[in-house]
Amino acid sequence: MAKILVTGGCGYIGSHTLVDLIQNGYTVISADNNSRSNPGILNGVEQITGKTVKNYKVDLCNFDDTFAIFQENPDIAGIIHFAAYKAVGESVEKPLMYFENNITSLINLLKCVQEFHVPHFVFSSSCTVYGTPDDIPVTELTIPKPAESPYGYTKQMGEQIINEFAKSSGTRCILLRYFNPVGAHPSAKIGELPIGRPQNLVPAITQTAIGKLPSMTVHGSDYPTRDGSCIRDYIHVSDIGHAHTLALQYLEQGKNKRLCDVFNLGTGNGVSVLEAIHTFEKVSGVKLNYMIGPRRSGDVVAIYANNDLARNELGWNPEYTLEDMLSTAWEWEQRLLADDAIFGSQPKELN
């Protein structure tokens, strides 16, 4: 089968995608500088699949080092590009760092794609490209509003760059706009490893439940939603991973309608922050210590997906329920507590 380069392969979604690609017969390699990931996660990938994944510890902002990966692997037939900074709050505080890292790495990668004539490219985009939409659920035809954070702008800019690149190259591209990936592999051998204090909801929930954090904060209770907290579309990370395999197959089979196709990846169900907390308490039996705090800069009020296009074109059908998402995340958190020595070397704070 084809060789696929997964950038950010040691990361949360990247590692789950490696598993899905391997289980569908692909040969995979990873490029990840481990500045915000843990190389030990690839041991979990190996335990699940029986395959050892080679990781190139390369900063994609360094063109020469990136180019060297392709020189060593001129048979790369497809790329799935995850590697990027992704913390919304941090991007508000350090916008230039986000623009430099996320855009430079993408451009360097596309230069190599062009030089080595890589036919297929799948980009990790985000629902943040929609900004605060006028209507929900959003479809792929929803006109994007201004992004609410520099992180969101890097995804909007990345999509524009890839669209223009596709027009001038022989590479066919897919932009996957996913909503809020959560959960962990059902084996509890891989999952999310946030650096420092979690900025995403579910790891904040599980770390509070297990005692790593004394409490957690719900950012805002006065939004115009059914319970005052933000509404998001939570999707299991393994469902997200499988969508990337389907996207590659879609391109390989020549089914793409355009030079650069776009698909939403979400369940289509909007869940509030407080609803997610209460669901976790139900599936885990643990009462969470949480407090209501002020709104957080960069947060969208409410967004969830219309996923009809991904279902109909890619044949993608999310399998995991909200209860599944939260229970697998909890099993992973408990496993981390038991096996702290495995991942104890992870960076502790965002710089």
Structure, described:
This protein is α/β, with parallel strands linked by helices. It has one domain: NAD(P)-binding Rossmann-like Domain (Rossmann fold). It is 41% helix and 16% strand. α1 packs across α8 and α3 runs parallel beside α5. The longest helix is centred in the first third of the chain and has 21 residues.
Give the strand order, joined by hyphens, for the main sheet.
Answer: 3-2-1-4-5-6-11
Radius of gyration, whole Å: 19 Å
Compressed to H and E, one letter per element, the order equals: EHEHEHEHHEHEEHEEEHEEHEHHH
Class in CATH?
Alpha Beta
Count of all domains = 1
Low-confidence stretches: 345-351
What is the number of E strands?
13
Question: How much helicity do the residues have?
Answer: 40-55%
Integer average pLDDT = 94
- CATH topology, by name, is Rossmann fold
| CATH architectural category | 3-Layer(aba) Sandwich
The proportion of residues in beta strands is: 15-25%
